Amino acid sequence: MKIVEKIGVMQRLVQRARKSGRRIGFVPTMGYLHAGHMSLVAEARRRVGAKGLVVVSIYVNPTQFAPTEDLEKYPRNLERDRRLCRTAGVDVLFLPSDADMYPGRAAGHYSTYVVEECLSQGMEGACRTTHFRGVTTVVAKLFNCVLPDVTVFGAKDWQQAAVVRRMVADLNFPIEMVVAPTHREADGLAMSSRNAYLSAQERRQATVLWRVLVEARALVRRSANGVAAGSLKKTLAKRVAAEPDARLDYIECFDTGTLVPVGRVRRGTHVALAVYIGKTRLIDNAVL
C-alpha cells in the first residue's frame, strides 16, 4: 500500500494508473475507520476489479464543522487506520494536509466553495447550517485530487450521499457514485466513528435510533393507507425521550429521491433522525 500526502503526487499516480488501463475506485473518509468503512472499500474493489486501483482518503475536514462542534476532539488513530487499510487491500492511502487542501485559509485567503442549494436545506442542513458547504467543497476537491472512475459512500449519511450525488450530476463529474448499505452492530446501532465517544450506559441507550426505525416500519406495515407524518413523529419522539440520556434533534419523513417531507408516511417513505446521546450526536435513517 502506498501512502501519499501531496496532491500533485496523488494526481500523477492516478494519471499513470489510468494510462495503463486501471480503473480508480475511491472511498473518502475522515478516519477512525471501522468495519463499515471496510465494507465501502470492499465495494470499491468489486467495482474496479482486482487490477483496479482502490484509494482511501483520510482527512478530517475543518470546513464541515461549526465552531461549536467536535473538530479538535474528533477521534483519530492513524496507525490503526493504516493497518486496517493494508489488511483490506487498499492500494493507496491519501493523507492530505489542511495547508494543501485549503491554501491560505488560516490567513483568510481561501474563498472558493461549492454549494448545493436544494437537497442540503433540511435535516442536517437546517441543524448544521455550514455543514454541507464544507462537505461538497471537500468532496469536489478530493475528486479533483483522486480523479476516480467510481466513488463509494455509505447510506448511513443518506442526505450527504444525496447532496454529493446531485453535485456530481450538476457539475458533470465523470464519476459513478455508489451508495452502499449501512453497516450495523449486532444490536442494530449504525457503525460510526463517533460511537467511540459513548460511555457503556450511553452505548446501550444509543440503540434507540435503530429501535425507532424498526417501530416506524412496523407501524407503517400495519396500516393499509399509511400513517400521518405528524402523528408518527410524535410517537417516535416519545420513544427517544424515554431514554434518560437521549435528546431528539430532529426526525423527518421524506421522499427518498427528492428529500421533500411528506404528509403521509407509506411503504417506501424514508425516515431519518438525529439524536444526542449525552453529548454525542448520532444519526440514522431507513426506508420504511
Q: How would you explain this protein's 3D organization?
A:
Strand 5 (150-154), helix 7 and strand 6 form a beta-alpha-beta unit. The chain is globular and about 55 Å long. A 6-stranded parallel β-sheet has the order 1-4-3-2-5-6, with helices on both faces. It has a 3-stranded antiparallel β-sheet with strand order 8-10-11. Strands 7-9 form a two-stranded antiparallel sheet. It has helices spanning 7-19, 35-48, 78-87, 98-101, 124-127, 131-146, 158-170, 200-205, 208-221, 229-241, and strands at 2-4, 24-29, 53-58, 92-94, 150-154, 176-180, 227-228, 246-254, 264-265, 270-277, 280-287. The model has no long low-confidence stretch (mean pLDDT 97). Helix 9 (208-221) runs antiparallel to helix 10 (229-241). The chain is of the alpha/beta class and 288 residues long. The chain has 2 domains: 2-180, HUPs (Rossmann fold); 198-281, Pantoate-beta-alanine ligase, C-terminal domain (Pantoate--beta-alanine Ligase, Chain: A,domain 2, 2-Layer Sandwich).
